[in-house]
Each structure stands twice: as structure tokens, then as C-alpha cells.
Design goal:
By secondary structure, the chain is mostly helical. The chain has helices at 2-10, 12-28, 33-39, 49-68, 78-95, 101-120, 128-144, 151-176.
Length: 186
């Protein structure tokens, strides 16, 4: 909750990946708040009693949402899907506006990797942005498991990372100022 709140303010991409990890942590703990209390909440450093209670209630609300939305064994909560949809919409808008050539350049550099990743997905028909997040999440899991990541994979993922980092940057910039407003539209 505390980490999620901070990430949401500073980096929407990290926030979304973190929230996917929260979903998986809840699943790994069998949607059992007692297990989550023992493995997560009680080990969280520097929390006082009210903060622990607040964190426990946060996890309980996610457990409840996961059950209601039937994403107990897989998939993502609607709030996370909504975040992904906002990023998709921004991605499309950035590509459609000639002022954002840096984004278009990053996209076209990452596109061959995205196409290859999508081909490997099989039946899953994720769009380009979700494919990028799936790949980034997979790399995150590999790192957490201390698995070796090949140089070729690292090089390819650097292009995907750059694209998503730019998307996240534009997302936060757009929250502060309407980056699509033209100067003559005052």
C-alpha cells in the first residue's frame, strides 16, 4: 500500500508491475490474510500498529476484489486493467502526434521485439503495450528468482524498457499538464 502509493505518484509503469506482483503475492498466500500477515505485513519494517492495521485492510480489500472479479488463479484486477488501458490510450495518442518523435522512435526500435514476443504468446492476444508489460514482469520474476538473463534478452528488453519508461514519463507529464494541448488552442 505504501509502496504502491509512492509508485503511482512517481512511475506508473513501476506501479502497474508492482500491482501485478501484489496479485501474485496474494495468490501465493492462497488469498489467506493470516498467511499474508505472517509473510508480508509482520515483516514490513518500521510500521506502527495503526499502519499495520491499514496495510492489512488494504490486502483484505484486494483479496475481496480478486474473489469478486474471479481472478483468484490468474488474470488482473479491473483497477490494474484500467491503468493498462490508460497507458494504451496514451500510447496511441503519442504515436498519432508528430510532436512526440522520441516516443515514435523508441516504439519503432522496440517493435521487432514486440512482434516476436507476441508471436511467442500463442493463444494470448495481448496488445503491444500489455505484451511489453508481460515481458517486463517476466524479467522481474527472473531477477527475483536469481535466474540468468542472456545478453541478447537483456539487449532486447532494454528497447522495451526504454519505450515503457518514455510512456510512463509522458503519462506523468500529462497528469500535470495537458501535453496534447496546442499552444494556439488557448
Amino acid at each position: 500500500m505504501f509502496i504502491a502509493s509512492q509508485k503511482r505518484k512517481t512511475n506508473i509503469a513501476e506501479y502497474l508491475l508492482y500491482m501485478w506482483q501484489v496479485e501474485d503475492i496474494i495468490r501465493a498466500n492462497d488469498l489467506d490474510i493470516a498467511k499474508i500477515r505472517g509473510t508480508i505485513i509482520d515483516t514490513y519494517p518500521g510500521l506502527d500498529a495503526p499502519q499495520r492495521k491499514q496495510l492489512e485492510e488494504w490486502y483484505e480489500s484486494f483479496i475481496d476484489m480478486m474473489r469478486r472479479e474471479e481472478v483468484v488463479s490468474g488474470g488482473h484486477l479491473q483497477i490494474n486493467n484500467n491503468t493498462l488501458e490508460m497507458l494504451r490510450e496514451l500510447h496511441t495518442a503519442l504515436l498519432g502526434d508528430e510532436r512526440f518523435t522520441d516516443y515514435s522512435r523508441a516504439y519503432y526500435e522496440a517493435l521487432p521485439i514486440i512482434v516476436e514476443l507476441r508471436a511467442r504468446q500463442g493463444d494470448t492476444k495481448h496488445d503491444e503495450i500489455e505484451t511489453c508489460f508481460d515481458a517486463l514482469y517476466g524479467i522481474l520474476l527472473m531477477r527475483l528468482q536469481h535466474k540468468t538473463i542472456s545478453a541478447a534478452t537483456s539487449e532486447a528488453m532494454a528497447k522495451v524498457t526504454r519505450l515503457i519508461a518514455l510512456l510512463a514519463s509522458y503519462f506523468h507529464r500529462n497528469e500535470v499538464e495537458d501535453i496534447f494541448r496546442r499552444d494556439n488552442e488557448l
